[in-house]
Structure formats: structure tokens, C-alpha cells
Amino acid sequence: MPSEEKVTYNLCQGWGCHEHCLVETHVKDGKIDRVQKCLFPGKRPANDICMKGILSAKIPYAKDRILHPLKRVGERGEGKFEQISWDQALDEISAKITEAAEKYGSRSIILNQFWCGYPGDWKSTHNDLIYRLAFAYDASILEYQAVDYGLTFGTAVVNGLFTVNSRRLPEDVGKEIIIWGGNPLGFTRPAASTHFLLDAQERGVKLVHISNLFDVTSARADQWVPVKSGTDGALALGMCSVVIEEGLYDAEFLLDKTSAAYLVNTETGAYARAAELIEGAGEGDFVAADKDGNLGVVAHPMGQPFAGYGDLTPDLFATIEANGAVYKTSMQLLREFCQEWTPEHQETVTGVPAETCRQVAREYIANSPAIIYLYYGLRYPNAVQSNRAILTLALLAGNVGRKGGTIMLAGQGDQTTMYGMDQNVIRFPREVRGMSDRVTIETILESFENPDVQQYKVWLNCMGNPLLNWPNKDMWRRRILPNIDLFVSWEIRMTDTARYADYVLPETTTFERYETVCDTDNCVMYCEPAIEPLGEAKSTAWIFSEIAKRIGVGSEFDLTAEEWQRVRIDEGMKGKNAIVFDDGQNPIGTEPITYDTLKKKKVMRVDIPPMIPEDGLSMDAHTTTTGRFEFYNELLNGIGHPFGDFEPIDILDDERRAEYPLQFYVGRHKYFMQGQFTNIAENHLLAEKQFGVALNPVEAKKRGMVDGEIVNVVNSRGTMRVPLQLRDDIPMGMAHTWYSFDEKHYPNTCCPQDLMHAENTPERETAVMRTYYPAYAYVNINVLGTPQVMTHVAGPYTPEGLWNQLCDVRKITSDGKEA
Fold first, then answer.
1. What gap in Å lies between CA 33 and CA 57, rounded to an integer?
2. Is the pLDDT of residue 107 over 60?
3. Strands 523-527 and 109-112, sheet pairing
4. What pTM was computed for the model?
5. Cα–Cα dist 235/382, whole Å
6. Could you give all domains of the chain from N- to C-terminal order, each with its CATH number?
7. Which of 215, 391, 396, 459 is geometrically suited to a Cys-Cys bond with 249, CB 3.0 to 4.6 A?
8. What pLDDT, in 10s, does the model give residues 244-287?
């Protein structure tokens, strides 16, 4: 008999990379035969796929796949389980949820909603149902804020809100792209980003790579600028100094789009309000001055386009005295601030030669419009200020919101994330029992120490793999898990997190579930199961439905996984149209987006109105203090610095380095995606060759070490015993390792996560975050009307710090002791 074949579209299992790729899945006789890149409608589709995505078809059949509900029978972390029935698992879990709710309140139930590493991430039906259960039951939601928020808050300080970009921006770039931080041409997030960057280079666009490591991107770039770890802010300020002192800035842009000409009271550090300098002026308006010292009112255009300066011709560098105080423009204050950051001074901090600093700054201006492609490479406690300094450079150049030149935030999907699907049609149940505040790790830890505050007793790990992907594993072992009565994990395989769970619930892979997603390349996508779920694996919609029935909110979960997709499309995209293309992929009209049409076509390109900007930064910054883009922020005066600044951090502390002289630099492995793909044999074989800790050969020689020997990586938090690798690409003063290997790779020794800090705890708080976070939250909650529990980040703690640890690498003697 001929074999039965079918073709489906499915999410790549590693969507946590934020490339959001779709694979075309070919099935024969009920088993996946192969996958390949999907072709999207229209010309130059952005959907691509990398090696990991192609290999993801092996995940359903992996040896460690969990196919039945499991109940812990050993100690947490031992990984000892017994197979039980779904009914037993659901009955026992639901009974403990109910018991905790009755004793401690329903908010004692925590649903982990941190989505990085989960297929479909925050755009998935799974994520919507987490909110729905939380609001229907008045449970608590946690989003861990350890990663990538330096970029979030850096842009938020400057333009009032987090910026979203299109990955297609490099198509219009002028002559240069500066890739600042990260390795987009050869790491965990290649796909569409790589495609656009290399295409631009082939068109003659210069690629400049600024990074602390020489990697694939460095090798392919036209120029590599090596910078010491954590000093990127100093380099940016050095470049700003060059632009200002040599008069290379775009004065017209600065006047039109920024608060550069606004006067600041140098005694208070606040922008001068018109009423304090001009009789009869409005309290909420601002002030500018011309070269002769004449003042003019600048109306605050809250929610309105900028009205201009009237008859005044502002002086960007004005200084006046009035009412016994000195007033200077924010541009003049920036100039004075940058005068200490000469190219020569930044060289003493960054290691970048002064002449290289000048050359890169001058060429960035000369090659404008140009893009600064900000990847996620600045994971340090000073990341907010460093990113602000880089944004200031782009503002000085006039390369913000300008066609062909802007700040590009890599990996942030296209504009359909803003103008596409309304996910609230599922997130909000018919009857909202309550919307608790989003809780933080810090909140949870405090509750264990204070019986008079809200207690947290049940952790439903609905997304992610926190015991692998989050720093400070010891915090989980000592401070969190002993105080949690019930820890449940949704899983497809036996991860580090699953090994610590009380119950493990087998979930379907992306090849066994229904999904609709509005993201990649302005397209909305329909995914259906390529194969039947293996074993007893169930969709998350089914799991939520069964738990909801048992805890009294079952009426809110009365649809199947497939039926939820109809709601997402017919209600969540109501009124949206898709572009219709002819056989030559030329647009010839539009048609309504409906579930039935999408199910047939699988992918439809959303018709995005042309007035919507390609880059969020091209919109006026109505939510800042001045309603303009601000490189000077009055809220931060006296807190760090009101400008983007260079802030010292642990890895640059000479006294700390006396004991632990090396930066402990923990990165993602290019063959894995966070916790995904680690159970694919081909990926693991390649990755295993790079397992251990890497040192520069000169650094190893000082310690009498040779390639391949077993060494101790040591700091005050623990000891990791692993093989040594010698690599010329590792700079002096750094010990590099990968965090993607699970804890089984470190028997009787520590994991990299053990040697890392906990990020969102009071001891990691920064002054900038403590001051700025309330303002950011105010805009989100009071100006935009976003419920606090649905805001993107939860607390005033350091948004970064993953690479701010020190260590030493020590030789081991034949008796197993350190030399």
C-alpha cells in the first residue's frame, strides 16, 4: 500500500531565540520524515530556519521524552519518580492547590509565566491560558526579571517606552551597521537576523562589530572593535565626545526630536519649567533660549505632535543666569559631561585605542543613515546606563526613526506584535475573580521569612526551565523549594527543573499541538499537529481544563486546544485584513483574516497600514517628562548620572580581582537554545567538544595548565570541576563556560549557575533601577492603562548581571586537591 503523507506547519521548538521561525513538516505513515523552511506569501520572506530548527523534528522521539505523568518518590533533585495516571496526578495536584488556597489564600498559588525558551513564548495560547487561570482563580503570576532588561529600560528612559523594531530595517540601511554586543551571525539567534545582515554586507554596507570576544560575527565583519567586558558605556561616551567636539551632530534632528535645547536648572537638576523663568507661562511647559539669551516657551505636547519653538531660534549650547541660578541646555550639560570622556580617557577603561574610537565615531556619522544593531550582549548591572549612552550616540547622529538608520533591537519581532492579535480575548475570563500583583523572587523570599504577609506555597511551573536557565541554583535548593509545599512542572523531557518537581506533567511538543501565532514577517500562522501525541502527552489546554474543573473554575476552560485557536483568530484578529498575492507574489488586494481561511492557507501576511512606522523609535516620545527623546533624564539626577554613564561593576574591581582575578563569563551554547535542543544527539555531540572552561593560552600558562586537564573553577559561591580548553579567542582575564548543559554533566560538583549571582534580590538592586522603575511602571499602568500584573517587568532590581561574576581557575594535584 502507498504510504500516507501529509504536510503541516509547526513552530520551531526553540522559539525562545525570538527568531520565531516556522517549519514545514513532512509526515509519512504517522511519523515525521523531515522538516524544511516554510515559504511565506510575498517577496523576500523573512522566515528562515537554522540547523537547530531543522533538527527539532527529533525532539518528539528523544530518549528522555516524558510520556506519562510522574510523581516524585525520592528527595527533590534526585530525579526519582513513579509513573501514575493522569487522574491521580490531577486529583492530587488540584487537592493541594485547594488546600493551599483555603489556608493561605488563592494568591499563594504561583504560575511561572517567564516564557523565554518556551515554543511560542508570550504569544502562545499556552501563555494566554496561564493568565486566564490566574485571573479566574485570583492566583499569582511570576515573571523573572533577570535577562535583557538593560536594553528595555535603556530605551524606556530615553523615549518613555520599550521600543519594538522590525527585523527588515537593514534593507534600507545607508552605508553602515554597527553590531554592538552579541554574535548574531553565528550564535543562538541566526536565521532572519543573519539573513538581513549578510545581505546588507553584500550590498556594500560596512559591518562593524563591537564585542569583548572574537567570534563568527567578528570574523565576518569588516571591522572588529574589541572592548573590555562591561565597559561599552565608556566607549559610547568617548564616541559621543568626538561627535560633539568635532561638530558632527545633527542639530536639526536634535531640535526637532529631542530635549537637547531645553534648559535645565543646574542647582536642582530638573528641566526648567516655563513658569519659573517667564511670567504668565504654563507650569507644565519648558524653556529654550537663543544665542542672545532670549527665552521662549516650549509647550509640552502630551499626546500631541511637537509644536515647535515659535519665533525663537534655540541655541543648543545656551547658558543663562536667572533667579540666582544657572540654567544650561541639556545639550550643553552633555557636552560638559563628555569632555571628561575623551578618546584617550575611554582607552584607559575600555582598551579601545583612542584613534579607533575617533575613527569609528567619524565613520558612523559619515556613513549615515546607519544602524546600531543592539543585541543582548550587555548583561551587566550597568547595562541601563550603557545602553542609554549608545542611544545618545544615535540621537546625536540623527539616526533614530530615520529611514535607513536607527537603533535596532535585535530579535524583537515585527510590528504585528503591536498591531496584530488581541490576546486578551483569551487572557481575561468571563468572570475575573482577581488580578493579583505580579510577584517577584524577592517577594516570594520575603514571604518565607515573614508569616504575617502573603505566603506562597504552590509553584506551577507552566513555562521555562528555571533551574537550568536562571542563575543561583543554590537559592532554589536552600531558600525556595524547602518552603514550597507543591512544585509541579509541565515538561516534554527530564530537565533540571523536572528533577526537582513533585509532579511532572507530560506536555505535547510543537509537532503535536495546535497553535496560532501573529509574529514573524508580519504574518499570522496556523499550526496543527503533525503527529498524534506520543504516549500520554497532553496539550496545555487540556491540562488547564482538567485542573480548572477540579478547583472550581472549569466553566472558564470549556474549549479544546483547537477551539481556542478559532477564538484567537476570529475574535483576536477581528477586522484585520491580509494581503492577497498573485502567482508572481505581487500584491493584488486584501481579504479578511478568518480562522477558516487561515486554516486553509496556513500563513497570511497581515495588511499593516502604511502610516505605522517601521521603527517604534520614530514615534514621538510622549511619555517622557518633556515629551521628547531625552538623553538627559531629570529623574536620575544625582542617581548614578542623568546621562547614560559608565558605572563600575564587580568584574572591574581590582580589589575583588586580587582574590578572584578572572571574569566568570557564562554564555549560551550555539548548538542549544537555552534548555532546548540539549537532548538532540547530533547537537550534543558537537557541543560536548566545547564542554568545560576556556582560558586564553597565556592565562593558562601562568597557572601551569595544559589543554584538556581537569581544573577547578572557584569563587565564593562554589567550585566547578571541568576540563580546561585553551582558546586564542578568549581575552586575558576571562574564564568562559556554557550554561546550557544540564546538571548531570557536573556530577559531585557545581554547575555554572551555582557560581552566579541571584539577580532580582535586594543585594543586587541598583540606584538607577530603584529610581527609574516607579516612573516606568507609572507610565505603563496609569498612562497606558496596563494592569500591573500584565506589565513586562516586575520590580526595581538590577535588570542584568549575568556576566558580573569573578572566579579563579586552579590546578588540581594528583590527589585531587588544588595546587
1. 8
2. yes
3. unpaired
4. 0.92
5. 13
6. 5-61 (2.20.25), 70-146+423-509+528-557 (3.40.50.740), 261-337 (no CATH), 650-760+803-811 (2.40.40.20)
7. 396
8. 999 999 999 999 989 999 999 999 999 999 999 998 888 889 99
